[in-house]
Amino acid sequence: MPVRHKVVVVGAGPIGLAAAIDLAQQGVEVLVLDENDRVSWGSRAICFAKRPLEIFDRLGCGDAMVEKGVVWNRGKVFFDARQVYDFDLLPEEDHKRPAFVNLQQYHLEHYLVQCLQALADAGSPVTLRGRNRVVDLQTAEHGVSLEVETPEGNYRLEADWVIACDGANSPIRAMMNLDFRGRMFEDNFLIADVIMQADFPTERWFWFDPPFNRGQSALLHKQPDGVWRIDLQLGWDIDHQLEKQPERVIKRLQAMLGETVKFELEWISIYTFQCRRMERFRHGRVLFAGDAAHQVSPFGARGANSGFQDTDNLCWKLALVIAGKAPESLLDSYDLERVQAADENILNSSRSTDFITPKSETSRLFRDAVLDLSEHYAFARPLVNSGRLSLPAIHDASPLNGPDDPGLPAKTRPGAPAVDAPTSDGWLLDRIGGGFTLMAIDCDLPDGLDLGPTPVTVVRISKNGWSALAERYLGAATSAVYLLRPDQHIAARWQAYDPAAVRTALARAMGR
Ligand SMILES: Cc1cc2nc3c(=O)[nH]c(=O)nc-3n(C[C@H](O)[C@H](O)[C@H](O)COP(=O)(O)OP(=O)(O)OC[C@H]3O[C@@H](n4cnc5c(N)ncnc54)[C@H](O)[C@@H]3O)c2cc1C
């Protein structure tokens, strides 16, 4: 008889691993299957943004990421042979995590495997099986049946729920005959990861139309272990084999870096990209996340970064549904919220791509004029688009949002992710943790609150001496009560505590 599992995650890429850890931390039994038995290799993601770093804190590898990664906040934009301006991504102080770290995707996957293994060793119900490729999937009203191919032969298993994290070419998507709509960009980019000892600062450098790659763009990023990522736009009509030849790549890099800089090639690849998504991310008992559900251009580092926000959004909802504490329809809010986020990412990523690679002479004239102006006039800088870097989506239209108080600051309105700030007892996001939380700032809450069967952590905070907290959560108000979801998005807020209003908002946030 096939064994039945609560949740099967297909794909142990970064997104599948994050989903499995998240569920296991909540006590949900989960099996992860991957056709490979190793972390990814080659040139893949390197830039991880602040919000995913905050999610990694909860998953258990935030410190490892920041300790190993290269922290950067500054970027520089070049046009032709000159620097036109530079920018600071996180001008605001008082956040535990930086705007970005650069770290090879294989390091991140390694940390995630370690977190998953630690959970399994401590008795959590999570298992990872490599060289287990899903080759067939049948859905039914109450579950999913899968056929898995292994070197020892095929076997079948069943699952109450499947999370498909099987990447851009998602075999699960194909098995279910599901659509994937969007735009393909007719361009090629050469990625060279090179090992060099260079004294360039730890910044993101982006070139429009540089002398060493006329008519195209280029990007330089630092990674740990003396590795640098160089991204050179090549145009559409190229000979792939020829462009990947090491001698040719070395010539291109020497033109960019100078003849005297010594480097060694680590990886060379050429990629094209698409901006597209599935129409829906929930198909009954199969839920799609990460690249399987949506893809964007790498400009803006929105691929993996948005995938972690998918699983952060999905796993608490699925855990509540499995525990019978929330209706299945709560999962529809995953679809709604993350499709909206994917659209935002696709829009930003397509706009960046159109700016970087103008599609008509008029667009090019506009772009070059903006770049020229940006050198001397600050007003033109927001128009320069070398990749608007990944920011978390705000779910303004979510059906899970409860009441708002317009007297409180807009940045922490319902639907927004909580903004970090130092408090008398450590960083705010660490104190909020990963369950429902009622946060009272300078507001009296009675002891022994009864908010119903779902556990709600109560966090009492004083703003005294903590100006960032006051500015982010109070504005001109003197007190506030915030209800936060397990993914640290704000569900509702008030200036004073009203137990009936909190209970109603909590039920709403759970889809009841
Ligand atoms: C050049 C480049 C640069 C990038 N830079 C960034 C960046 O800086 N920041 C960022 O956030 N993103 C970046 N990305 C995107 C990022 O790499 C992806 O978004 C991320 O890998 C998606 O993770 P995933 O887990 O959804 O899919 P994947 O990483 O593709 O993992 C899918 C997993 O599913 C497994 N699998 C597939 N089929 C089956 C099957 N039938 N059965 C079992 N297992 C299966 C695969 O073996 C694989 O392990 C970049 C991508 C590229 C190509």
SSE diagram, text form:
Blueprint: E1 3-10, H1 14-25, E2 30-33, E3 47-49, H2 50-59, H3 62-68, E4 70-72, E5 74-79, E6 82-88, E7 100-102, H4 105-121, E8 126-129, E9 133-140, E10 143-150, E11 153-164, H5 171-175, E12 181-196, E13 204-208, E14 217-222, E15 227-233, H6 240-243, H7 246-257, E16 263-277, E17 282-283, E18 286-288, E19 294-295, H8 303-322, H9 330-356, H10 361-374, E20 422-423, E21 426-427, H11 428-432, E22 436-441, E23 456-461, H12 467-473, E24 480-484, E25 490-494, H13 499-509
Helix pairs in contact: 1-4, 1-8, 2-3, 8-9
Flavin-adenine dinucleotide binds at residues 10-16, 33-36, 40, 43-47, 105, 133-134, 165-167, 171, 191, 271, 290-292, 298, 301, 303-305, 307.
Description:
There is one protein chain. The protein is α+β, with helices and mostly antiparallel strands. Among the domains are: 3-71 and 98-181 and 275-347, FAD/NAD(P)-binding domain; 410-509, 3-Layer(aba) Sandwich (Glutaredoxin). It has 13 helices and 25 strands. It has helices at residues 14-25, 50-59, 62-68, 105-121, 171-175, 240-243, 246-257, 303-322, 330-356, 361-374, 428-432, 467-473, 499-509; strands at 3-10, 30-33, 47-49, 70-72, 74-79, 82-88, 100-102, 126-129, 133-140, 143-150, 153-164, 181-196, 204-208, 217-222, 227-233, 263-277, 282-283, 286-288, 294-295, 422-423, 426-427, 436-441, 456-461, 480-484, 490-494. Strands 1, 2, 8, 9, 10, 11, 17 and 18 form an 8-stranded mixed beta sheet that branches. An 8-stranded mixed beta sheet has the order 6-5-13-14-15-12-16-19. Strand 14 (217-222) and strand 15 form a beta hairpin. Helix 1 runs parallel beside helix 4 (105-121), helix 1 runs parallel beside helix 8 (303-322) and helix 8 (303-322) runs antiparallel to helix 9 (330-356). The longest helix is centred in the C-terminal third of the chain and has 27 residues, at 330-356. The protein starts with a strand and ends with a helix. The site of flavin-adenine dinucleotide has 35 residues, from helix 1, strand 9 and helix 8.
